[in-house]
Structures are given as C-alpha cells and as structure tokens.
Amino acid sequence: MDAALSEEQERIRRTLRDVLRERCGPGEVRAAVRTEAGYDEELWRRLAGRVGLAGLAVPARYGGAGCGPTELALACEETGRVLLPSPLLGTAGLVAPLIVALGTEAQRAELLPRLAAGELTGAFAVPAGALPAALGLTAPNDGDWSGGGRAGGVQARPAPTGPGWRLYGEASQVLGGHSADLLLVAARTGGYARGRTLLFVLRPTGARGVTRARLTALDETRPQARVQLRDTEAALLGDAEADVPDALARLGRCVAAVLAAEAVGAADRALERTVAHACTREQFGRPIGSFQAVKHRLADLYVAVQAARSAAYYAAWAVGGGATDDGTAGGLALAQALEALRKVAGEAVQLHGGIGVTWEHEVQLYFKRAASDELLFGPVHRLRARAADEAGLFAGRTAGEAVAL
C-alpha cells in the first residue's frame, strides 16, 4: 500500500477544508441543525457543485466524479472535523451506490445525475437499529433485519392493479429521512414462509400515505426521522431477483471505511481543540499542558487518532481494490475509529474542566457525536466480534472458549 495521497486526492481535501473552514464554525453548525432541513441547504448545493461532493462515488457516465472509496473517505474525514450536518452519508454513501449496484439502466440514468448534481438528496430507510445488521457490520446479513408485518419494519405487496408495489409499515432512526427527496426503503415481501428483502424507490414529497417526523436525537448534527408508510406506492429498485443482502454486505465494507474516516476527522479536531486549551489554560501559575500527566494523556490520544487514521485509510484502500478484502478491514477500522473518538471526546471534556460540559462550548458536540455513532453503527465489541467471525478466528471453538480467549 502506498500511503501517499495523489495530487487529485490532496486537491479534494484542500478544497473541501477551505470551504468548510469558511462556512462551518460552531455557530454556523448550530444554526444549520435548527433549520427545517437540518443542514445548510445553500452550503450543500455549493459543495455539490464546486467540490462535486455528492457525486464523488457516482460513475462519470452518470455525471459523477467516478472516484473510489478513498476519495469519499478523505472527504468524510474533513466533514467529520467540523461535524458538518449534511445529506452526504445518505446520498453519496448509501443511496447512490445501491442504485449503481442494483438499479435498472433507466433508474440509473434518471436518478444518478440528479443525485450527483445535488438536485436530489437521498436517505436509506431500514427498521430502527437495523442499519449495522443491514450492512453486515454487526451480524450476518440474512435479510431478517428488515422485519415486515407483525415483526415490525416495512412490508411490500404487489399493487392490486398495475405493475407497482405498495408499502406498509414504519422505519425509525432514518438518517436524514425527514428532508430527503428520495427514500430507498428496505421492505420484506413474499410472506413469512418465503419472505425476502427488496429495495424500493420512493419520492416522499406528495406521495400518498407517507408521514415523516424528525426525531429528537442525541447528536443534532446527524438528524434522524421516523418514516411511516400506509399503502404507499413505490417502485422496485432493479428486479425481484436481486440479491439485496449480498449487495448491502458489500456496500457495508465501504460505508464502514467512510464512517471510520469521518470519526477520525472528528477525533482529530477534538484533540486539536484540547491541545490548544491545555496550552492556554493556567493552573498553579503555569499552563496545564506543561504538567507531565497531561502531556502523557495527550500523547496517548494522539497515538490513538493516528492509529485509527491508518486503519481507516487502509480499509478504504482495500475495499477500493487495493488488496484482497476478506470483509474485516472496514469493520475493524470503524471499531478502532469509534473507540478513538470516544476516548478523545471523553478526555476532551475532562481536560476542559467545567466548560467542557456547557452547551455553549463545541467540545460537547464531539462527545455527543462519539456516543451517538457507537449507538447507530456499533457497538465496538460487536463490530470486532463480527470481524472475528468473518475471518474464522474462533472457528471450531465454543462461544465460552471464544470469550475466554
């Protein structure tokens, strides 16, 4: 693996960092999350147009940049530094790649150029708490997570007349689902004996039977919504023979690397802020950063962030074809990055003292991001357990023997 970034990758990082430094201070972030959309729509259009952020992972023939996971991870590292509230994860990380992988040519031609241009934003709707399982991060993706009917989630039935489908049910904790222009809904179809999971494309604005409500979330910079569907017309993504669990599991490896890079960016910025505070905050007539105990704590945090960054970069490189990926690199990188972010954010609150827990200070935003991300995409021990299963680390051992090890 060549750890050096290419000129194009450096340009993406530099351009994005310049724009975000200008437009994404703590005050701007707080103002953006309180808007109806939950993010700065004008800034998102600028990022989509000038930087091409929305179309980084979209093939060039559909109007995108045609970049790979590494470029998307680098972009997310920068957005993670400022905790940018945006539809980036839902649009570029989840919806667009699934349309590329499973959509018909007509669906790709219709939707991908608009997603790449920032004209449409997307969200991926799965039952509450099912996103890590759907992406194969914490459990084998057998499709049972989609629920349907009495088991919860969303159920799909063929329309009584015509070629369409009807969706029934509820998906909560949908990231960005309250304002997305396009919903990709995972639904169970085929009854209980022969049920399977399929994906459906839904334009929620003006659609019959769609109710969307923004939820109160621990991390306001990552808005969540409850989506309720009642006899709602939707179009099948691709065809009924598509292997949706396999496509989601493959996508999960890329998403894990991207989320890991985003967490690394957040941890890096929180650490920078803490080091700056330690150099200026005086106690007993000297900066607290001059005390050996504080130096050791900050040094440990620096090592944790750099190790997590290396793991995230390797995962993005591996899933992009740089190495034979056995499915473990992304999950392990995400586990390490979430752990590093939790550790850095916790120490940041401690070293900032009383102001670290006040609403006015930005460090509490990073602490909430750390706690929220582990709830949404983890927890860390399950990410690592899943990677161990994928690698066959404890093959032939009982559960008790594996735990003892």
Short overview:
By secondary structure, this protein is α+β, with helices and mostly antiparallel strands.
How does this model look, in words?
The protein is an alpha+beta fold. It has three domains: 7-89 and 96-120, Butyryl-Coa Dehydrogenase, subunit A, domain 1, CATH 1.10.540; 124-242, Butyryl-CoA Dehydrogenase, subunit A, domain 2 (Beta Barrel), CATH 2.40.110.10; 245-404, Butyryl-CoA Dehydrogenase, subunit A, domain 3, CATH 1.20.140.10. Helices cover 51% and strands 14% of the residues. Strands 1, 2, 3, 4, 5, 6 and 7 form a seven-stranded mixed β-sheet that branches. A two-stranded antiparallel ribbon has the order 8-9. β8 (282-283) and β9 form a beta hairpin. The mean pLDDT is 90. Pfam families: Acyl-CoA_dh_1 (PF00441), Acyl-CoA_dh_N (PF02771). Its cofactor is FAD. This is Acyl-CoA dehydrogenase.
Uncertain ranges: none
Number of strands: 9
Distance between the termini: 31 Å
SS-derived structural category: alpha+beta
Indicate the proportion of strand residues. 5-15%
Mean model confidence by pLDDT = 90
The CATH architecture of the largest domain is: Up-down Bundle
Molecular shape: globular
CATH topology type of the largest domain? Butyryl-CoA Dehydrogenase, subunit A, domain 3
Tell me the Rg in angstroms.
21 Å
